[in-house]
Amino acid sequence: MKILLLIGTGSFIGGIFRHLLSQFIQTKLLSTFPFGTLGVNITGCFIIGLVLALSEQTNMTSELRLFLATGICGGFTTFSAFSNETYLLFRNGQPGYAFVYITASIVLGVLATLIGYALIKL
Q1: Domain membership of residue 24 as a residue range
Q2: Is the distance from CB of 41 to CB of 77 less than 8 angstroms?
Q3: Cβ distance 11 to 71 under 8 Å?
Q4: pLDDT for the residue numbered 30
Q5: Residue 49 falls within a domain, yes or no?
Q6: What is the pLDDT of residues 17-46, one digit of tens each?
Q7: Would the CA dihedral through 32, 115, 103, 52 be positive or negative?
Q8: Distance (Å, rounded) from C-alpha 103 to C-alpha 107?
Q9: Which residue from 42, 35, 45, 39 is spatially nearest to 83, judged by alpha carbons?
Q10: Residue 20 lies in a domain
Q11: Other Cβ atoms within 10 Å of 121 Cβ, number
């Protein structure tokens, strides 16, 4: 139960920061291109990379890693988890799986969005 509360608290914090940063970026650039979301996704990828490296080089507890990576980064953007998992596939010598994961995530994600939208519009 403690782990779930840590992850939930981190997700709450990450979600708030995602909204604030995305809105800040988008209002500064005054464009219809989703720079806010792009900025959040890239920032989240950077942060999860920091967390991963710190967890490997320090005595970071699994609870803190879950709070930061799964909670805060996951609430901030799930793209950071996708990026981290892709990096780990490459690092572990599985580039084929990495490319399949990249392609499947993008194609199936967009397709699922289109299907969900179409179902509501029927």
Answers
A1: 2-77
A2: yes
A3: yes
A4: 84
A5: yes
A6: 999 999 999 999 988 888 998 899 899 889
A7: positive
A8: 6
A9: 45
A10: yes
A11: 6
Going 66 to 70 to 73 to 75, the CA torsion angle's sign is negative
Spell out the SS3 assignment of the chain. CHHHHHHHHHHHHHHHHHHHHHHHHHHHHCCCCCHHHHHHHHHHHHHHHHHHHHHHHCCCCHHHHHHHHHHHHHHHCCHHHHHHHHHHHHHCCCHHHHHHHHHHHHHHHHHHHHHHHHHHHC
Return the residue matching tokens 């219809």: 32
The first and second tokens of residue 95, run together, are 């580039």
Q: How far apart are CA 45 and CA 81, in angstroms?
A: 8
Please state the pTM of the whole predicted model: 0.77
Confidence of residue 81 (pLDDT cuts 50, 70, 90): confident
- Number of folded domains that form the chain: 1
